[in-house]
Amino acid sequence: MEKTLISVVGPTAIGKTKLAIALAKHYNTEIISADSRQFFKEMNIGTAVPTTDELAAAPHHFIQHKSISEPYSVGDFERDATTKLDQLFKTNTVAIMVGGSGLYVDAVTKGLDHFPVVEESIRQKLNEELAEKGIITLQEQLQDLDPDYFKKVDLHNPHRLVRALEICIGTGKPYSSFLNKDKNKRPFKTITIGIEADRAMIYERINLRVDLMIKAGLVDEVKSLIEYKALNALQTVGYKEIFNYFDGIWELDFAISEIKKNTRRFAKRQLTWFRKATAITWVDFDEKISDVVYKIENNSK
Order of strands, edge to edge, in the sheet holding 94-98? Predict the structure, then answer.
């Protein structure tokens, strides 16, 4: 095979880690994690970080390598991940990448869009508006300034809204006008394996995972992070709901049910993102590793 990155994608709780490890063992190679929630060392239970046994089964990179207090952008990840891949391809023709963060996966496999530098004060002002007036204000601004991107973006992701708006405001041009321009060509081939299951099975696996997180001590983990709850890294499913419990806004049972609901919504958005890609080989969540390898080998010819 030529230098090949096997990218394992799919919705949360579908079994991406298990398949990635099996593939890493088969090809005697290492794993790049593209799960942006698992970058942070203080977040363990709520991000479903691979277990000690899983991490020992195959070398992993970009798992809990940063602190929640350290800024770490998708651009930083693109730089670090492609550098690590250059190193891995010196000793192996195959590397594995796994993660459900579509933007981070695309940053490595396709490269990032390049945007002009804008004043930092614009982002600060937008974040203040978000805190004071809520996310609807940002949604309305984006619909006015860039209706095309408004139709595509995850409207419930404040980071994406702020990023788009700061470009719109700072340049006077729609954020979408900078998308899909010339990007850096990658010196490796990418084969993307998507894991799928019917919706009922995905939701069942999500609900079970949340129950196991609670049993493993998620509430105590979130409690230990209360003083940092304003940080961007903690504005995510599994943490913000429990913060509401500690703030006295919700009962614990309701907070847990909201984690399940919001995780199911997140999984739906992940599937929507990946379904838009045409070059994905889909496999069942319980497909035999030998059958997955067969599909990869046929794809590599």
Answer: 60-61, 31-33, 94-98, 4-9, 189-196, 280-284
